[in-house]
Design a protein that fits this description.
The chain contains 12 helices and 13 strands. By secondary structure, the chain is α/β, with parallel strands linked by helices.
């Protein structure tokens, strides 16, 4: 399975922060925002990733992420210079998708909660149809909204309704089969001139091919579209990491524990972050993970 991250847009709601930098490269506590959706895809065992962004931002992304080899990934880039909708990402990514199932995640969405990896794994195993992730919110009129029956099956979808039928927001994480490309090509622009992801999901719903995963109470779904939500997300991650002593969305750790990179490649990642608290964390987990199994390698990071 492959993964697409939509990380374009001008970030006007975050001006003046985003006058000179793409919002997905802004910090969420101790790492760039873009790390978090990448980590989500990695937890779903996805290693081939397409990042869709503006043409002027591609080199910035490459300076931060390269092509992902340091994490055992293959990262490619594609362009969306105008905000023509989330569903357009599926069309832009057609060649990358190559008639395979794929995941699509918005670059400003953060997920954290118990059992998330299992949820992602289950969704990735669904080779027919689409899977959306729903989350109970107090202000559903700001989002795409899913109406669910008593069996938690989706019975209707609406895009930012004035009178929502439920409090379940559809988050910015979707899993699709290969039909999504042709379905997306059938879409007509909405009144705001965009190809709406809700319309794509509605096609799957009408065909009886849409599944829903409800993120339970205690789970965190954060977006970062405003100054306040950006600060909230940073504070949330800082609190979790300080309390647990474990990092959220540490790409090096995920790759190493998945055996996607070797010990020596992990040490190279450590060297690139040496001198920071992030680097200190990499050193700590390496010592804990290796124990005394290989003293010659341990000495290299002492």
């Amino acid at each position: 399975m492959k993964g697409i991250i939509l990380a374009g847009g001008t970030g006007t709601r975050l001006y003046p922060l985003t006058h000179a930098i793409n919002k997905h490269l802004l910090p969420i506590y101790d790492k760039p925002l873009i790390y978090y959706p990448i980590a989500t895809l990695m937890l779903a065992n996805i290693r081939e990733i397409l990042i869709i962004t503006r043409s002027e931002d591609v080199e910035l992304y490459k300076s931060v992420l390269g092509h992902g080899q340091q994490w055992g990934l293959k990262i490619d880039y594609a362009i969306q210079d105008q905000p023509r909708g989330i569903a357009e990402a599926v069309i832009i990514g057609e060649k990358f998708i190559n008639a395979e199932p794929f995941a699509l995640i918005l670059g400003d969405n953060l997920f954290f909660g118990h059992g998330f990896k299992s949820m992602l794994h289950e969704a990735s195993q669904n080779r027919q149809g689409a899977t959306i992730f729903c989350y109970w919110v107090v202000d559903p009129q700001r989002f795409g909204v899913a109406e669910l029956d008593k069996y938690n099956q989706v019975i209707s979808l609406e895009e930012k309704p004035q009178s929502p039928k439920s409090n379940y927001a559809v988050t910015g994480l979707y899993f699709y089969d290969a039909q999504a490309v042709e379905f997306a090509k059938q879409l007509k622009p909405s009144l705001r001139g965009e190809l709406e992801i809700t319309d794509l999901n509605r096609i799957y719903l009408e065909k009886g091919l849409l599944k829903s995963v409800n993120l339970h109470r205690g789970f965190a779904w954060l977006d970062t579209g405003t100054h306040e939500s950006l600060m909230d997300a940073g504070n949330y991650i800082a609190t979790i990491e300080k309390r647990q002593g474990l990092k959220v969305a540490c790409l090096e750790e995920i790759a190493w524990r998945n055996n996607w990179i070797t010990d020596m490649e992990f040490l190279s990642c450590y060297e690139n972050n040496k001198g920071s608290s992030y680097g200190s964390y990499l050193k700590q987990i390496f010592h804990i993970g290796k124990g005394s199994d290989d003293s010659s390698i341990i000495e290299k990071i002492a």
